């Protein structure tokens, strides 16, 4: 299954992100607006660049002028110095949108990944930062990707966040961190059964209020999570 990696505009842990990009094979590398600055800094070429580019405009003076800048300025606005070298590269696709739009840049990037035939989507720069509303929007985005048939994750060095609408297993040795938390998303989860975990459950109904599903731990080599209906927001985390 083809994988896409999206670099968002949130806080990016450079060592983690660079290691991840080196280790994980990906068919598409999509820069979502300000995420382009991280890739440019490290000389990494994306396959696609999307956004309204309002967040990168402030960095315009940080990059040297490039050939064709005047033409690119006319096409891309204030962000043209950042985009100019990519705009001249036929291997890079740029999609520019107006700031006044119905979707975040991250949703546009994730939808593009699905259009490119990627069934796995990993998002870096989507969990941390000053904008908690964008974090909530990215969690909503996990649900949208689930509906579109893609396995999407929000990742940083301490968190792996994803969503499931059917039973699944977790391998202890492959787990992102020590802690494993479950939240009912969009309605209660019925018949929830947890096997191979520190705090097991048997046909439990997990509601949308309270903290019952927080900070469990996988004890056996393989933990199984089964449920009859609903959607689970899953967080594998470490301190």
Structure description:
This protein is of the alpha/beta class. The protein folds into two domains: 3-157, 3-Layer(aba) Sandwich (Rossmann fold), CATH 3.40.50.10240; 163-237, Rossmann fold, CATH 3.40.50.10240. Helices cover 25% and strands 29% of the residues. It is built from six helices and 14 strands. A ten-stranded mixed sheet has the order 4-3-2-1-5-6-7-14-9-12, sandwiched between helices. A four-stranded antiparallel sheet has the order 8-13-10-11, with no helix packed on it. Helix 3 (69-76) packs across helix 4. The longest helix is centred in the middle third of the chain and has 16 residues, at 132-147.
In short:
The chain is an alpha/beta fold and 239 residues long. 25% of the residues lie in helices and 29% in strands.
Helices and strands, with pairings:
Layout: E1 3-7, H1 14-23, E2 28-32, H2 35-41, E3 48-51, H3 69-76, H4 80-87, E4 93-96, H5 105-115, E5 120-124, H6 132-147, E6 151-155, E7 159-164, E8 168-171, E9 179-184, E10 189-195, E11 201-206, E12 216-217, E13 222-226, E14 232-237
Parallel strand pairs: 1-2, 1-5, 2-3, 3-4, 5-6
Antiparallel strand pairs: 6-7, 7-14, 8-13, 9-12, 9-14, 10-11, 10-13
Helix pairs in contact: 3-4
List the main descriptive attributes of the protein structure presented here.
239 residues, alpha/beta, ten-stranded mixed beta sheet, 6 helices, 14 strands
